[in-house]
Structure formats: structure tokens, C-alpha cells
């Protein structure tokens, strides 16, 4: 069952942050100013910025010997278990494709507002141009413009939302999405192996996987200490693939041991994170980790995010192989379509959405 749009909801006026920024306001509109407890810490976190594990995909697929392959699988396992995040290098996606996709996204955001507004994200929905996850007039807004599209399978696409400008946008997103889909498939095989499972276990459980793309554009903000680029959340997907803009500016932060750790972009690498689905399937062994984006005083930032998830038809729950008397079942079985609907009809609020599946103890 696909997530259905909500009945009309009142979200008040959602200012377009790129337009707001044009007037270089020294005072930030109240709706963007976070409560004191939510404001970002912009000072460098105590951990070194490169603490996020790095996984070399070429060592997984064609390591020189068994030791090299096993070593990399072990790295992958540690990354998924302890961090929920890693950066993947040598991922086999052409760098020219990463670049052209980034250029397309950037060109789209630089179009006049009237052009972008031809593809509006209706309140309560998640596809199109605008701000997703806003459900009330008093909800704080993120310092971000988003453009999101359902990609696969075809029935989740809304062709009216695929832009005609810039030329080649749709073509590029299609080619990019096919490559990212292959990468997700392959990573899931190695993730299965890292858990001691058959390599096709996830592919069999997912059916025809749902894939969506979201481009996030964060303009500079004169008071980055007061606003958030993107509210803290975990992703509802199985895997998320994030491409950070070539400007290489830090903005993504992940919550590790109660402190926000910045993810320093590695040129040409992709950031991968475990989503709620893998947390549930592994009975919490591999975790979907809370993350957020912060803004910068002078620099803008672009991220291109792919969500890869099971088909809406699939019924999911923790895998038998990962439960025993020491690891009792932590999540109930549910239909992924229902989880998707729950996810997209709630505001981003840390890992709250996953309570949908948690067995209360
Ligand atoms: C922060 O997460 C999201 O924005 C998001 C949205 C994904 C979607 C679209 C942009 C359009 C098509 C539907 C879909 C919900 C996939 C996250 O995606 C995750 C959340 C769930 C649930 C999921 O399956 O992927
Ligand atoms: O822009 C980023 O770095 C974070 C994006 C993200 O977490 C998301 O789109 O779900
Ligand atoms: Fe995310």
C-alpha cells in the first residue's frame, strides 16, 4: 500500500529560504529559530572529523585475497553496528555521473522561484519542491529547500513533478538512480554476509525495492547557531546513499554517544547510512542512527540523497537468525507500506517514528 496524501492540513506560510537569504536578513524569522535545547553546537566535536568509518568497496568485490575481503567485511560490520554510518570509496559509480547529477541539482535550485514552484510539494506529502514533514502552523522550519521524487517502481512516480528544466534533468536522475540502485543491492549483499547470512536474504525480503531521491539545498544563514538545516531524524529506508556537494563543506552531523559528530566529506566518496528497516530486520544489531544538518554563515551546501527501501507490500520483522534467548525480539512485524505512511505523516523527530514497531518492555 502506497503512502496516501493527508486531508488538507494547516501549515501556515512556509518561506522559501533561498528567497529569504537574498535579502541577507540579520534577524532570522521566528519560525526558523530553534528552542534553546535544539540549537546546534557548531564548535568541532571532540572526536576527529574523520572518525566515521571508511569502507573500500573495491576490497569487498575484488580484494587481493581472502584476508583483504574478510578485513573489509569486518570493517563494514563494525561501521553498521557501532556507527550506523560509513563513507564508501571506490564505489564504481562514474565520477562524471556524480558531477553531472550534482550540476543538475544545483541548476534546478538556481532556477527562478516561479519555475521551481511549478512542481510544488503539497502540504502533508513528500514529493516535489518545498519543505517536507511540516504538519502544523507552530512547527519550527528547517533552513533548507528540498526537491524530492519517487523513482522506483514506476507507480510511485508522479510524472507531473519531474522538471523540464534544466534540460536533461530527468535523464540524468534516471541514470544516476540506476547506478545507486546497483550499489545498494551490492552493499546489502555484503551487509548480509557481514551478519553471517545468505547474500540474497535482503533482496528476497524486499521484492521490487522502493527508491526515492531527495535533493537538499541549504543556503548560507547569518545565524547558523539559531537554526537547523535539517531536523534530527533517522531514515525510514533500508539504506540511504548521500552525495555531498563538491564544495565539501561540513553540514551533516550524526549522534554518537550523545554528541553530534560532523561527517567530513571525502572527495568522491558516498555516505551510506543504515535506515530503520535494517535496524528492525537485524533486531537492533545494526542501528539507524539519528542525524541532522547544520548551516554555515557564508557557504551554501547541497546534498543528494537516495532512499532505498522494501516494496510497500512486504511484511517485515526481525530475522529469526538474529534472535535468541539473549536477544529477544525487539520489534513487531508490520507492513512496510504502513510504516512508510506513518513515516511521511509525522514530523522528523529523532528516532520517534520507529516507536511504531518497537515492542515496549
Ligand atoms: C527523510 O526521509 C525522507 O524524506 C524519505 C522520503 C521518501 C519518499 C519519497 C521522497 C517519495 C516516495 C515515497 C518515499 C516515502 C519513499 C525517506 O524515505 C524513507 C522513509 C521510508 C518509510 C522509506 O521507505 O524510505
Ligand atoms: O543533507 C544532509 O547532509 C542530510 C540529509 C538527510 O539526512 C536526509 O535527507 O535524510
Ligand atoms: Fe536522513
TrEMBL record:
GO terms for molecular function: L-ascorbic acid binding; metal ion binding; oxidoreductase activity. It holds the Pfam family 2OG-FeII_Oxy. InterPro entries: DIOX_N, IPNS-like_FE2OG_OXY, Oxoglu/Fe-dep_dioxygenase_dom, Plant_2OG-oxidoreductases. Residues 208-310 form the Fe2OG dioxygenase domain. Keywords: Iron, Metal-binding, Oxidoreductase, Vitamin C. Belongs to the iron/ascorbate-dependent oxidoreductase family. This is Fe2OG dioxygenase domain-containing protein. It comes from Carya illinoinensis. The lineage of its organism: Eukaryota, Viridiplantae, Streptophyta, Embryophyta, Tracheophyta.
Amino acid at each position: 500500500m502506497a503512502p496516501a496524501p493527508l486531508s488538507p492540513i494547516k501549515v501556515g506560510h512556509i518561506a522559501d529560504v533561498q528567497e529569504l537569504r537574498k535579502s541577507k536578513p540579520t534577524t532570522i524569522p521566528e519560525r526558523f529559530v530553534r528552542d534553546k535545547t535544539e540549537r546546534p553546537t557548531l564548535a568541532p566535536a571532540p572526536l576527529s572529523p574523520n572518525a566515521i568509518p571508511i569502507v573500500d568497496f573495491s576490497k569487498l568485490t575484488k580484494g587481493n585475497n581472502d584476508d583483504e575481503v574478510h578485513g573489509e567485511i569486518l570493517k563494514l560490520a563494525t561501521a553498521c553496528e557501532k556507527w550506523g554510518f560509513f563513507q564508501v570509496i571506490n564505489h564504481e559509480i562514474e565520477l562524471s555521473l556524480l558531477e553531472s547529477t550534482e550540476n543538475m541539482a544545483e541548476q534546478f535550485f538556481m532556477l527562478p522561484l516561479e519555475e521551481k514552484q511549478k512542481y510544488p510539494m503539497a502540504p502533508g506529502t513528500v514529493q516535489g519542491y518545498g519543505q517536507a514533514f511540516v504538519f502544523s502552523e507552530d512547527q519550527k522550519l528547517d533552513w533548507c529547500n528540498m526537491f524530492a521524487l519517487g523513482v522506483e517502481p514506476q507507480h510511485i512516480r508522479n510524472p507531473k513533478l519531474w522538471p523540464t528544466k534544466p534540460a536533461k534533468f530527468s535523464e540524468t536522475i534516471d541514470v544516476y538512480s540506476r547506478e545507486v540502485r546497483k550499489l545498494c543491492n551490492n552493499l546489502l549483499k555484503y551487509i548480509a554476509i557481514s551478519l553471517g547470512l545468505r547474500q540474497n536474504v535482503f533482496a528476497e525480503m524486499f521484492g521490487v525495492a522502493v527508491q526515492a531521491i531527495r535533493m537538499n539545498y541549504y543556503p548560507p544563514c547569518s545565524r547558523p547557531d539559531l537554526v537547523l538545516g535539517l531536523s534530527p531524524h533517522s531514515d525510514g529506508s533500508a539504506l540511504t546513499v548521500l552525495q555531498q556537494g563538491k564544495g565539501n563543506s561540513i553540514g551533516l552531523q550524526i549522534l554518537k554517544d550523545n554528541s553530534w559528530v560532523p561527517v567530513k566529506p571525502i572527495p568522491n566518496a558516498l555516505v551510506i547510512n543504515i535506515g530503520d528497516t535494517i535496524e528492525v530486520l537485524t533486531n537492533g544489531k545494526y542501528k539507524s542512527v539519528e542525524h541532522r544538518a547544520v548551516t554555515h554563515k557564508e557557504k551554501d551546501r547541497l546534498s543528494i540523497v537516495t532512499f532505498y527501501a522494501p516494496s510497500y507490500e512486504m511484511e517485515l520483522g526481525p530475522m529469526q537468525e538474529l534472535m535468541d534467548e539473549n536477544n529477544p525480539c525487539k520489534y513487531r512485524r508490520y507492513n512496510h507500506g504502513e510504516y512508510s505512511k506513518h513515516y511521511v505523516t509525522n514530523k522528523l523527530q529523532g528516532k520517534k517514528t520507529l516507536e511504531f514497531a518497537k515492542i515496549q518492555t
